[in-house]
Amino acid sequence: MSLTTETPSTQRTTQKNPLCAPCLCGSKAKLTNLFSAFLCALCGFLHAAQPPRAALERFCIDCHDAETKKGGVDLDSILQDGIAKHPATWEKVVKQLNARHMPPIGKKRPDEAGYEALITALTTELDPQPPKAIAGPAFRRLTRTEYQNAVRDLLAVEFDAKAAFPMDEISHGFDNITVGDLPPALLDRYISAAQKIARQAVGTSTQPEITAIRVRPDITQEYHVPGLPLGTRGGVLVKHVFAQSGDYEVHVRLQRDRNEQVEGMRGQHQLQILLDREVQSEFTVQPAKDKNYEKIDAHLKARFHVAGGQHDLGVTFLPNGSPVLERLRQPYKSSYNLHRHPRLNPAVYQVTITGPLKAEGAGDTPSRRLIFRASKTDPEAILRPILRRAWRRDITATDLERMLPFVREAPSLEKGIESALAAILVSREFLFRTEQNGDEAALASKLAFFLWSSLPDDELLSQRPLDLAAQARRMLRDPRAKALVTNFADQWLYLRNLDAITPDARLFPDFDHNLRESLRTETSLLFADVIENDRSVLDLLRTDQTWLDERLAAHYGIPHIRGSRFREVKLDSPTQRGGLLRQGSILTVTSYATRTSPVIRGHWILKNLLATEPPPPPPNVPALDGVISESLPIRERLAKHREMTACASCHNLMDPVGFALENYDAIGRWRAEADARGGFADGSEFEGVSGLEDTLMKRPELFVTALTEKLIVYALGRGLEASDMPAVRKIVSRAKANGWKFSEIIIGIVTSTPFAASK
């Protein structure tokens, strides 16, 4: 082993083990086999016993000895003990060396070969250590996303858990980490939800229920809504479960302003109510002559027959020609009125569904087919497969005896099954996941919640012994793997934060909820394509394709894209769009309401793409606004900020990276005139997003390591420990040998010691 360092006179010297030249056992000397073997063993012992002290003393010990101890790190005191005895400290050193954050600029630093040699020397000592199986929480409650997916797969009921339950707490970037408790208030919600789901699934209730669906006020309803018939304008499409066949009443209410006046009421408008795209009723909406605005939509009620089951209920308008007003310049895609609502024409505010008013019995619904597929008369045969899926294990006679009294005491079999299903949905075996060593059922459940955010299927529960690699490949091909997009990627990339982003309307008058959803969809479709086609994960960083609808294409200035359907678009080179760093969703969630933020963008890149999150800011650090003149350009304002000693150490890392994205404004639009010079802590400099991508692609292991770490945290439901890092490096090495394919990372994770420990 050799370590290349730079001397003060810029000459390079090479330090070698005196017994390796290059290891006497490999020289041309005619040694006996026995003597060669002895020297090989001696060399190995000396390499293990003597860490790369020379390089560490030259570059690290001056700042990290017992006296100086910068950052609270004392390497000098532990260097004599050997690398393997202090893995937590040396893993931090490896991370800093990988990121080239240490030694800092201005200090003596190794050249690139020296960095790699030092990292190799450290990881060679760390990786062979016996892996430690660190268990996650013994009990973990289902998140609301997992609960919603589990209900869908168990009973074929589409339940909106986001509306029923509060948001789960975020830890380590994900909401499945700190979900170990069940407060009484939340238990009450689970009971109410279980009863509602069971009624919908079995369809025994004949009592009318009222369901109200409201449309966000910041949605523009001037264009076609996906899923509704072509040639219609605005409205809403609702997937609703009609528990019983019978008559239902649908009441539509229109959007109003703060003065309770119906918005956009100019002339007559035709409104249609549709069921599965078939028109059920049509109405004329026109201004009230006596200015009684309650009369305008009071007659928008329709009663019609619906077969039990899930149906698409649509409410929409027929267009009255072009809604675009005459303007001198190209009109915005959204036009706001005085009340900050995007209205040129009337829009739907609320759809109320009441029924069944004349119940005819439960129909042949997907839920009933799933529940009664084993038998229509035997409660044990009905409940056993449901219990097995819900509790994620084989069912005993004792388990059945817990549920059968609900059936025996009910007035009818179906009422009893409904009560039993409600009990199953609030049982501890359903609401909580448990992990026990040697329990393959728990491991199957762990795999399912990792890849599907839902219950394991029958094949996964039945296979013994469990072939994790084969099952993972199968599950990635299943549509349920979309949960990696909607649950993992949404949290990793901060897409969930889009709902909380409201750019300043005076500066960005064309931003509405339609654009927000289009931005989210573009990024989701890129991640989904990488999964479905098993592409290289590096395509997330750089690609020559994207997915656009008309709204997003207009936002990006890309011509010839028409309609509300998203389609794959091949991008011409050079292009301003493509990978994650060029997508409006990422650029928007890393900006303020009024301007871009190189700090937030730089922090996002370091944390999510490079796994080198800077430490949190010290207390009482002043913000830019009010302290540094707001008339200065953002680059100069941040330079002033970095003059504060407490701020410089972190901002020297974040700011230069974030500046590379300054060609994009706060909602992701291109601006060519910006100063987009950037750099990394290793002294490398680049220009704009292309230069940033080039730099990241030169060392792809950094990005793949960051993605792998995020996936492992999400899979394990806990933060990473030092003992997990050898497994991370092994997974990254596997992915590199297989073209950085997404599936290879997943298989590496599910077969790793941290994940498969319970096996």
Q: Layout of helices and strands, plus pairs?
A:
Blueprint: E1 2-6, E2 12-16, H1 33-49, H2 53-59, H3 76-79, H4 87-99, H5 112-126, E3 139-141, H6 144-155, H7 161-164, H8 184-202, E4 209-214, E5 233-242, E6 246-254, E7 269-275, E8 278-285, H9 294-298, E9 301-306, E10 309-318, E11 348-355, H10 366-371, H11 379-391, H12 397-408, H13 413-425, H14 428-431, E12 432-434, H15 440-451, H16 458-462, H17 468-476, H18 483-492, H19 513-532, E13 545-548, H20 550-556, E14 567-570, H21 584-589, H22 598-609, H23 634-642, H24 645-659, E15 677-679, E16 685-687, H25 688-698, H26 700-716, H27 725-737, H28 742-750, H29 753-756
Helix pairs in contact: 4-5, 8-13, 11-12, 11-13, 12-13, 15-17, 17-28, 18-19, 22-24, 23-24, 26-27, 27-28
* Structure summary, number of beta strands: 16
Q: How many domains would you count in the coordinates?
A: 5
Query: What would you call the shape?
Result: globular
Radius of gyration computed on alpha carbons: 31 Å
**Ends distance:** 37 Å
Assess the beta-strand content as a share of residues: 5-15%
Q: Count up the helices.
A: 29
- Largest beta-sheet details: 4 strands, antiparallel
**Helical/strand content category:** alpha+beta
Q: Please bin the fraction of helical residues.
A: 25-40%
Average pLDDT for all residues: 87
Low-confidence stretches: 1-32, 34-51
List the strand order in the largest sheet: 4-11-6-9
